[in-house]
Amino acid sequence: MITDLHFNMCNLERSYLLNSQVGNLSERITQNISPNLSYACHFWGSHIICTQTKQSYAMLEPLLQKFITKVLLFWMEVLSILGKVDVISETARALLEFSNPMEAWETDLQNILKEMQQFIHVFGRMIGDATPHLYISAIPFIPKESVILQPFISQMNRLLIICRGQRYSWPSQQAVLTGHTADVSSVEFSPDGKRIVSGSYDHTLRIWNAETGMIIGEPMQGHTSWVTSVVFSPDGEKIVSGSSDQTLHIWNAETRMIIGEPLQGHTLQVTSAAFSPDGKRIVSGSDDKTLHIWNAETGMIIGE
């Protein structure tokens, strides 16, 4: 993989185009990114984590150092082209968990892995939309104290130079998620922390990748008025939403499709909803001064 990765893997001529605007991008990927390279870029971290011997640990560190100092940015470039920016932060997180028990791994290496996560939190959406902006927009704005860029400074020509106001460290605000067209009324993380669901006065729900800040799929439409409450089920497989249209919807969190019919029973707007710990029931509150308990499987009201 180290020998195959290089700058501008798919020979993109125009840096101002979004990936979706490159008409023959799939052909370029086929011509320049082999199935073997694609697999390696996706799963090399998983293979490292499967290593179990101390001898292997000692061998891995210099190889990982070489990868990070030689081709890290080009690996990110490939995953951006393939639409898999989230793999970057997932790989970094997994390697950090893998490396924590190993005192032999240098602190610098762990710091770089942490910065890979921060980099994707801040710039993931940008480079997911337009691969060239990894170099022309993200890299110049990396904080001065960052260790992730140091090995590549001598290789980067004609970068933007920030004359004033460049950050010295990574911001506490990791990302701004934009997409709704009206007030956001409710947000929640999935149980595994990998997704965020949001509800809005634009009548829609959206699901976001919590690592990259990118929208997952299209807006979830079904309510006819403001979405006032959203919540994941304990297993992360469902979402329930409440609305000013006096109904609740249960959604498949993977397909983002409505499950069954609207839950009807309230006579004024639904203000709050939650799953029971076992995920079998839903409770809702409303401006009509009542609470309803629902069967999460059938959508039927339980009791009066």
TrEMBL record:
One Pfam family per UniProt: WD40
Gene3D superfamilies (UniProt xref): YVTN repeat-like/Quinoprotein amine dehydrogenase
Keywords recorded for this protein, A-Z: Repeat, WD repeat
Per-repeat ranges for WD: 177-218, 220-261, 263-304
PROSITE patterns: WD_REPEATS_1 (PS00678), WD_REPEATS_2 (PS50082), WD_REPEATS_REGION (PS50294)
InterPro entries linked to this entry: WD40/YVTN_repeat-like_dom_sf (IPR015943), WD40_PAC1 (IPR020472), WD40_repeat_CS (IPR019775), WD40_repeat_dom_sf (IPR036322), WD40_rpt (IPR001680)
Protein's recorded name: WD40 repeat-like protein
Organism annotation: Gymnopus androsaceus JB14
